[in-house]
Amino acid sequence: MDATNSAEIKTEFDNLAYVPGERIRGTVSWRLSSVPKAAALRLFYYTEGKGTQDVEIVEDFAFDAPTATEEREFDFELPQGPYSFSGKLISLIWALELEIIDDGPVERLIFTLSPTGEEVNLYRHAHEDMPDYGVLRFGKTKTQGNSLRDR
After folding, report:
1. Number of domains in the chain
2. How far apart are alpha carbons 46 and 43 in whole angstroms?
3. What CATH number is associated with residue 63?
4. Is the backbone of residue 79 left (phi > 0), alpha (psi -120 to 50) or beta?
5. Does 144 fall in a domain?
6. Can you give the residue range of the structural domain that contains 15?
7. Is residue 50 in some structural domain?
8. 139: in domain
9. Does some domain include residue 150?
């Protein structure tokens, strides 16, 4: 890729927080030293953290007959989920990715999708006294009689 090649994704009003079912609109632009073979914009989410990374492309849009220097509009309807979240072991991240095919730049723009427009923080209210999930008990424990533990 030539050092002068560049690409950019801009959302309408520079918005980076959305609710399910809302539309994400904006423009993509690129400036290249030669005409690319193709250009595409993807709406997708991926997981990051422990374990295997999952990637799910929700929509993929190819731009017709790209030229070396362009600005194009985009408009996607966002799905009902999954929501953007961060936990202790894994996060789910939404993004748009502009790919210029044939050694061109790849540009990624991360945004949040949730009912509040804010990332769901799974440990927002966690504290040191919180029990581990493996030892949660509900109700009273029977200590006498015919409990299953006595059998």
Report:
1. 1
2. 11
3. 2.60.40.640
4. beta
5. no
6. 6-121
7. yes
8. no
9. no
Give residue 94's identity as a one-letter amino acid code: W
Per-residue pLDDT reduced to its tens digit, 110-135: 999 999 999 999 877 566 665 554 44
**Which two tokens mark 63?**
């731009």
**HEC states along the chain?**
CCCCCEEEEEEHHHCCEECCCCEEEEEEEEECCCCCCEEEEEEEEEEEECCCCCEEEEEEEEECCCCCEEEEEEEEECCCCCCCEECCCEEEEEEEEEEEECCCCEEEEEEEECCCCCCEECCCCCCCCCCCHHHCCCCCCCCCCCCHHHC
Report pTM. 0.79
Say yes or no to pLDDT of 46 above 90.
yes
At residue 138 the predicted structure's pLDDT band, cuts being 50, 70 and 90, is: very low
**Torsion angle (degrees, nearest 10) of CA 10, 11, 12, 15:** -120
